[in-house]
Amino acid sequence: MNPPTFPSHWRLSSPILIAETFSSRIWKVFRADGTPAIVKALKPFDDVEDELRGAHLLKWRGGHGAVRLFGFDGSQMLIEYAGERHLSAEIAEFGDNAATEIAAEVMAKLHAPSRQPPPAELQPLRERFAALFDRAKADRAADKDSLYVEAAITAERLLSDPKDIRPLHGDLHHDNILLSPRGWLAIDPKGVLGDPGFDAANLFYNPLERDDLCLDENRIAFMAAVFAKTLRQDERRILDHAFAYGCLSAAWHASDDNAIDEERELAVARSIRRIARML
User: Which residue, 61, 75, 112, 185, has fewest beta-carbon neighbours within 10 Å?
Assistant: First the structure.
């Protein structure tokens, strides 16, 4: 691989490639004052707008609850270095309940009011649910009374009656929350505009390798209670957000012909639905 080229005015040195995904290369670099930072170099791919919207959200948030955006040049972002300890590591050392409380604190900071108007580039939450609505429509046409159909009805109800509309992270989970010198911070937002309950939803399905936790109905109930208090919504509504999101995620996996992860998301969604029906 050729050495990376960064904007000269960023004055960066000693790049180290620390991760590569389908969407980007992540470089750890050092700024002129010797402090570490991250360069996220986007690749051309279908959903690049997700990443670009995330940059606008970081700029708007200004470091409150999330990493700071130091620079944005074409397809490259210069971002605050937030360390290497993910929230998932907190589970082994201090327990899952402690990790949930930390996630709630980060969420509260991310949703705090700002004097600045929200970025115009954010994606309306309804647009983000397109894959679920498309799958439910296809199932109805095939006369299938599927979980997707039920989830689409739930999503439509939530979208038609939002409790609040504000900028959202859009992909908040245990591996997108890191312990920095400034405390716990969110990384890699998608930049969505909608009901804050959506930001709690993905946490129910994470960490991805911990199905023992994600399928645990006591854990689901605890998370719903914590996030309901944080977001000032009732627990049933939080669980409805989580159920709808899980089926949306499953629809994304289905469109990629990923049956294993599709069924995994649906299994967690069913557990969430069982708890919701008890309330």
Answer: 112
Q: Do residues 276 and 237 lie in contact, with contact meaning Cβ atoms separated by under 8 Å? A: no
196 shares a domain with 146: yes
Q: Are residues 34 and 150 in the same domain?
A: no
The burial class, CB within 10 Å (0-12 / 13-18 / 19+), for 167 is buried
* pLDDT score at 22: 83
Segment holding 142, helix H or strand E = none
CA atoms in the 13 A half-sphere facing the CB of 151: 30
Distance CA 245, CA 103 (A): 17
Domain encompassing residue 75: 8-80
Residue 54 domain flag: yes
CATH code where residue 233 lies? 3.90.1200.10
Q: Which residues of 48-83 are buried (b: 16+ CB within 10 A; e: fewer)?
A: eebbebbbbbbbbbeeebbbbbbbbeeebbbbbbbe
Residue 208 DSSP symbol: T
Question: What pLDDT, in 10s, does the model give residues 8-26?
Answer: 999 999 999 999 988 899 9
Question: Does 47 have pLDDT greater than 90?
Answer: no
Catalytic residues: 171
Residues 136 and 218 in one domain: yes
Count CA atoms closer than 13 A to 270's CA, side-chain side.
8
Does residue 2 belong to any structural domain of this protein? no
Average pLDDT, the chain: 96
Domain-located, residue 219: yes
Total-model pTM: 0.96
pLDDT tens, residue by residue, 186-224:
999 999 999 999 999 999 999 999 999 999 999 999 999
